[in-house]
Specification:
heterodimer; A: 326 residues; B: Rossmann fold; Dna Ligase, domain 1; 5-stranded mixed sheet
Chain lengths: 326, 470
Amino acid sequence: MLSRAANNLYWMSRHIERAENTSRLLDITYRMSLLPYRVQESGQSWAEPWALPLVINGIASAFYARYPGVLTSDNVLRFMVLDPANPSSLYSCIQAARENARTVRGAITSEMYEDINALWLEMRSQDYDRLHASGLNAFFEWVKLRSHQFRGVTFGTMLRDEGYSFIRLGTFIERADNTARLLDVKYHTLLPSAADVGGAVDYYQWSALLRSLSAFDSYRKVYRDLITPTKVTELLVLRDDVPRSLHACMNDIYDILKSLCDDSSREAERLAGELHALLHYGHTEQIIALGLHEYLMAFLEKLSKLTAEINRDFLIPEYSQQQVMS
Amino acid sequence: MSNIYNEMYQADGAVRPHYQSYSDWLKDKPLDFILQKQREADTLFTRLGITFAVYGDEGGVERSIPFDIIPRIIRMQAWKTISDGACQRVRALNAFLKDIYHDQEIIKAGLIPEQQILGNKLFRPEMRGFDVPGDVYVHVAGIDIVKTDQDQFYVLEDNLRTPSGVSYMLENRKMMMRLFPQLFSRMPVAPVDHYADVLLDNLRAVAPAGVVNPTVVVLTPGSYNSAYFEHAFLAQQMGVELVEGQDLLVKNNTVYMRTTRGPQRVDVIYRRVDDDFLDPLAFRRDSALGVPGLFAAYKAGRVTLANAIGSGVADDKSTYIYVPEMIRFYLGEEPIIANVPTWRLDRADDLSYVLGHLPELVVKEVQGSGGYGMLVGPASTAQQIADFRERILHHPANYIAQPTLALSTCPTYCDSGIAPRHVDLRPYVLSGKTVTLVPGGLTRVALREGSLVVNSSQGGGTKDTWVLEE
C-alpha cells in the first residue's frame, strides 16, 4: 500500500491509543485526588501525581509556559483534557486521529470513518466547565469506551490487509511505549518511600498504577497476594497474558512485522525479534539486579530504534536508485 | 418569467404522470415526517463526513452541501434526449481537441478563428502533435443541462477539466435508499452505483500501449482541497490508491508511487489537479502539488493522464458557442441539445445590445466557474448592474452574455414547507472504451426563492435524480 497511507493509519491508531492511555491516567489520578487519604503524609507533595501526565508526555515545560506558577489539578486537567494548544490533550489526540482517518478514508471502512468522525464531532462540542461540573470521570470513561469501540469497529469490519496490520502496529507500539513510561515514572516516585511498603498510601499508589493499566483484577487473579513492586514488575513487563504488558505488546509487534517484512525490510523484523526475545526470555531477578529504571530506559531506546526503522522501511521511505530500476 | 415549467405539476395543478407514484406516497405524509427525515439526512451527512471545505474559512472548515430529500424525477424518454445529447457533445468536443492539437482542420475550414484557439491561455502548445492513448482527451465530462419546458433542454456549459460533484450523485442516492427504502420498491429507479466500475473500466482501457494489467491511481491536491472527499470516495469505490504529488516519483520517464513494498509503477492517473500544477518542471514552477517529470513521462507515452492536458481550451465559455458547429463538422449530425443563445462581448454589435439590456440578461466571465464573477440581471440591483457594466467595459472580451432562462423548478423542502425551486442537471459522461453515462446526474437546486444560481458556493443544494425505467 501507499507509504503515506500506511503512515496515516499507523498514526491514527497511535493517537487513539494515546487518548485512551491519557484518559486512563487522568482518570486514576483524579480518583485518587478524591480519596480522603492525603499523599503528602508519605512526604510527597500533594500535587505530584498531577505532574505524571506532563512528565510521561514530555510536555512539562509547555505546561508551565501556558500556566506559569503552581501546578494544580485544575490546571493540569484543563491542559490535558480539552486544550487545543496542547498536542497531547485528549482533544488534540482525537483531532489528529480523525485528521489521519480523513486523509486515508478510502483505506478504512465507512463504519470506521463514521465512528471516528462522530467521536471528533462530539469531542469538538465539549466544554470544560460543563464536563467538570458533571464529573470528569464520566468523560474519561467515555474516551476509553470510544477507543474500545473504534478498535471493535476496526476489528469487526476491516479487511485483513496491510492497512489493518499498520493500524495494529500503531496500537501496540503506542501501548508498549505508554506502559513502559508509566511504570518507570511511577516506580521512580514510589521507590524512595519503599519503607512504607504495605502502608495504605503505598497500596493506593500501586493499585492506581495497576488500575490505570486495567491490570488490577489480573493481579488479584494471578497472585492472590499483597501488591509488591516485584510482582507488579513481573506482571506488567514479563507476563504475556496481560494485554497491556510489554511482553504482550511485543508479541503482537513481532508477529505483525514478521508478516509485513520482506527482503528490503529485514532490519525492522530483526530489531523487533531482539526486543521480543529480551522479554520472552527475561527474568524478574535480572530486572531487579539491573534496576527497573535502567531496564525500562533500555527498552524505550530499543523501541525508539525500532520505530525509526519502521519509518525508514515502510512509512517514510527513501528509495535507492537500484530499487527504482528493478 | 410567468411561465416557469414545474417538473412535478402541470399548469392546471395536476400531477405529471411520472411523478404520480411519488405524489401518492407523499400526500399522506405529514410535514413533520418530511422535516424529521430532512433532519436525519443532515445529521447523517455530517456524521458520515460528506463535506466540502470552504475556502477562506479559518482552519479549513468543512460543511455539508445542503441536501434536499425530495427527489427529482425524470422520464426515460427525456433521459434519452439528455443522454444522447450529452454523449454527442462529448464525442464532438473530443474530436475537436484531437483536431486542434493536430491538423487544425476546423480552423482551416474557417469555422473557428485561429485566434480563438491559439490565443487562448488554456491551449497547450506542448500538446501539439502528441497522440493521446485511444485519442481520448475528455475521460470525464460534466455537461450542465437545464430544462425550460417539456422536451426543451439547453446545455449551459461543458466542464472538461476536472469536473466535480459525482460523489454527491452517488451519496445522495445512498442517502435516499437509507431514508426511504419503501419508495424504491414502489418505483423503478435506474441504478447509478456502478459509476465507479464504469470509470475504472474506461481508465484501464486508455493505459499506455503494451501495459497488460494497468495500475490506476487518483491524484488529489490533498486533504485541504474542497473536493477531497470526492477524490477519496472515488479512489475507494474503484479500489485504487489515492495519491498526492509527494507519493509519486518519476525515473526514466516512468511514474512510480512510494509504497510499503518499495516503488510501484503507475500507468493511468485520474488526476484532480489542474494542468498548471501537475509538473513544476513543465508548468508552474512554484507548484508543490505536482510531480517533477510527470509531463515528460506523459509525452513519452509511459503514463496516461485523465483528463488529458490541454482539454480546458474546449470548455472555455468563449469556445462554447462553437460546439454546435463542432457537432456538425466532426460528426455530421445536428445537435440533439441546443446551446443557449450567447452574445460575445468582443463583438461590437453584441456588446452594444448587451449593454442596452443588462437588467434582463445573464453575463458570465469567459473563464469563470463556480458561479463567481457573474451577473444575473433580473436578480440584481441597479447599482450592481452599473458596477458590472464598468467591469465589462474595462475588458469586454472577458465576458459573454445569455438570456435569463426560465429554468424549470422542482418541489423542494424549505422553511415554508414544500415549494418550487429552480434546478439544473449535471450528468457525467465517461469516455475510454466507449462514450457512456450512468442514468442519473447531480441535480443542483437554488434554495433561495426565485434564485437561478445553483452553485454550492453560492448557497445551492443538491437532490437525488431519479431516471425511471419503463
